[in-house]
């Protein structure tokens, strides 16, 4: 596939305006050295100044966006922003603005714009969206940049098209990236795994991400106006900045490949190929974490992530949270818990015991009113710490410590279901193939190609 040069065609080192500044090493202790030092300082200042000039941006090598003509079921709607009142847009190519396009044949272009080399504001006023000073009718607008089909939203580059959708309150809007599956995956694989990892691990990641995305789209996409979130709530998507040659190789080498397994009705179909960062020794049964049951998701032994994961992540330090914050977050997310009053105790109710450690799967919450209720441990974790960065897993012990809840003896990162990403890298280092890695973490599954 050929590479395409976009944005400014000047590379920093070949920028003509830089050739004027020639740097010479300083001679210490001499007058001449002092002058030279001054020159170096001035030269450095000049470099900084030039680097910040728009005409001297380093050029970016960007691949054309593939699959722009693919069938609608392989386009992914990624929620980029929700309930916002403004944002900025840049494009290096001209673009069209149209109404929502159920049928491209009947969709009419409302406006054509030239490229927006500087960020243009998009906001909402009296229920109408304004793009670069032009106001549009309609609750849904599509921005469709010409080739190479790349735009920048709030400074981040994405591929495909952009949808603006006014919310029922007429005061805010959601922003959705409409992107074909393969370029979507390039923005996921490079965000979910370091691109210097083994090619076989990156390919396993690409197949797992492709399958997961299609499963979530099929299951939830027709109930809402987007398919997946751009965060770890689904899978992390960073758009063009996550891409690299290694990432694109992983996506292209597995083009159209997904994992399937036998479903209870006897058919072979895709399943939710969950994956997480560090399982810490054993992956978890999906039924205990997400409540769904599939043969490949029962959990397997994993001695492979320990040698790959950083020690400070494999074993994480004590996490602690104020009791009042824990109660507030729980009652906000689960209004049914309001009947408990203040949460006065959190008791381990169920866990998966793996010998050296156990993963907490269910807790009993006891309230100041004497009532109690149950919650999945993973739901407790992500309610207390929605980022998942501090309370990294449910492999931990819960203690009451004055006015705080403390989480001790923590290990692993993520929910632990499906492929262990560090484990996949460990297996790839041992020379295992993509197929071997996937059949290890999703036993009973097989790879098929859907397009
Ligand atoms: Zn593991």
Radius of gyration: 26 Å
Number of helices: 10
> Oligomeric status of the shown chains?
single chain
Please summarize the sheet with the most strands. Answer: 7 strands, mixed
Q: TL;DR of this structure?
A:
The chain has 10 helices and 28 strands. The protein is of the alpha+beta class. The radius of gyration is 26 Å and the shape is globular.
What secondary-structure arrangement, pairings included, does this model have?
Layout: E1 4-6, H1 31-51, E2 60-62, E3 75-84, E4 86-91, E5 95-99, E6 109-113, E7 116-125, E8 128-131, E9 134-136, E10 140-145, E11 150-153, E12 156-159, E13 161-166, E14 173-180, H2 181-192, H3 199-220, E15 228-229, H4 245-253, E16 257-262, E17 268-270, E18 275-276, H5 286-289, H6 311-314, E19 315-316, E20 319-322, H7 323-333, E21 343-353, E22 358-367, E23 372-376, H8 377-384, E24 397-401, E25 404-408, E26 410-411, E27 419-420, H9 421-429, H10 434-441, E28 446-449
Parallel strand pairs: 3-15, 18-27
Antiparallel strand pairs: 1-2, 3-14, 4-7, 4-11, 5-6, 5-10, 7-8, 8-9, 10-13, 11-12, 13-14, 16-17, 16-28, 19-26, 20-25, 21-22, 22-23, 24-25
Helix pairs in contact: 2-3, 2-4, 3-4, 3-9, 3-10
The structure holds zinc ion.
Zinc ion is lined by residues 278-279, 302, 304-305, 420, 422-423.
Description:
The structure is a single chain. This protein has helices at residues 31-51, 181-192, 199-220, 245-253, 286-289, 311-314, 323-333, 377-384, 421-429, 434-441, and strands spanning 4-6, 60-62, 75-84, 86-91, 95-99, 109-113, 116-125, 128-131, 134-136, 140-145, 150-153, 156-159, 161-166, 173-180, 228-229, 257-262, 268-270, 275-276, 315-316, 319-322, 343-353, 358-367, 372-376, 397-401, 404-408, 410-411, 419-420, 446-449. The protein has 451 residues and is of the alpha+beta class. 24% of the residues lie in helices and 31% in strands. It starts with a strand and ends with a strand. The longest helix has 22 residues, at 199-220. A seven-stranded mixed beta sheet has the order 6-5-10-13-14-3-15. A six-stranded antiparallel beta sheet has the order 9-8-7-4-11-12. It has a three-stranded antiparallel beta sheet with strand order 17-16-28. The structure holds zinc ion. Zinc ion binds at residues 278-279, 302, 304-305, 420, 422-423. Zinc ion binds next to helix 9.
């Amino acid at each position: 596939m050929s590479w395409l040069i976009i944005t400014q065609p000047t590379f920093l080192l070949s920028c003509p305006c830089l050739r004027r500044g020639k740097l010479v090493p300083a001679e210490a202790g001499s007058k001449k050295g002092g002058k030279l030092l001054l020159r170096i300082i001035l030269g450095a200042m000049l470099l900084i100044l030039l680097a910040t000039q728009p005409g001297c941006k380093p050029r970016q090598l960007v691949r054309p966006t593939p699959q722009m003509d693919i069938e609608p079921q392989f386009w992914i709607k990624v929620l980029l922003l929700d309930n916002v009142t403004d944002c900025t847009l840049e494009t290096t190519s001209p673009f069209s603005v149209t109404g929502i396009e159920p049928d491209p044949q009947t969709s009419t272009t409302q406006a054509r714009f030239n490229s927006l080399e500087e960020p243009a504001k998009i906001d909402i006023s009296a229920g109408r969206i304004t793009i670069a000073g032009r106001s549009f009718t309609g609750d849904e607008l599509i921005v469709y940049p010409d080739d190479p089909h790349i735009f920048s939203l709030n400074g981040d580059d994405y591929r495909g098209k952009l949808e603006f959708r006014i919310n029922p309150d007429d005061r805010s809007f959601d922003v959705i990236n409409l992107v074909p599956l393969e370029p979507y995956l390039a923005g996921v694989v490079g965000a979910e795994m370091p691109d210097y990892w083994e090619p076989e691990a990156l390919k396993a990641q690409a197949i797992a991400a492709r399958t997961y995305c299609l499963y979530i789209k099929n299951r939830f996409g027709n109930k809402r106006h987007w398919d997946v979130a751009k965060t770890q709530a689904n899978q992390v998507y960073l758009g063009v900045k996550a891409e690299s040659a290694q990432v694109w190789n992983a996506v292209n080498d597995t083009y159209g490949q997904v994992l399937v397994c036998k479903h209870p009705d006897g058919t072979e179909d895709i399943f939710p190929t969950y994956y997480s960062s560090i399982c810490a020794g054993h992956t978890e049964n999906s039924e205990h974490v997400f409540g769904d049951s599939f043969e490949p998701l029962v959990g397997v032994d994993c001695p492979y992530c320990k040698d790959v994961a950083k020690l400070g992540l494999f074993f994480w330090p004590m996490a602690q949270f104020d009791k009042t914050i824990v109660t507030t977050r729980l009652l906000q997310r689960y209004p049914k818990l309001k009947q408990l009053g203040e949460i006065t105790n959190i008791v381990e109710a169920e866990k998966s015991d793996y010998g050296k450690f156990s993963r907490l799967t269910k807790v009993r919450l006891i309230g100041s009113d004497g009532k109690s209720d149950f919650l999945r441990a993973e739901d407790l974790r992500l309610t207390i710490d929605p980022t998942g960065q501090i309370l990294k897993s449910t492999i931990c012990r819960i203690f009451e410590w004055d006015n705080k809840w403390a989480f001790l003896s923590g290990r692993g990162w993520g929910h632990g279901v499906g492929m262990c990403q560090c484990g996949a890298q460990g297996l790839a280092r041992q020379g295992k193939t993509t197929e071997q890695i996937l059949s290890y973490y999703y036993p009973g599954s097989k790879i098929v190609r859907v397009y």
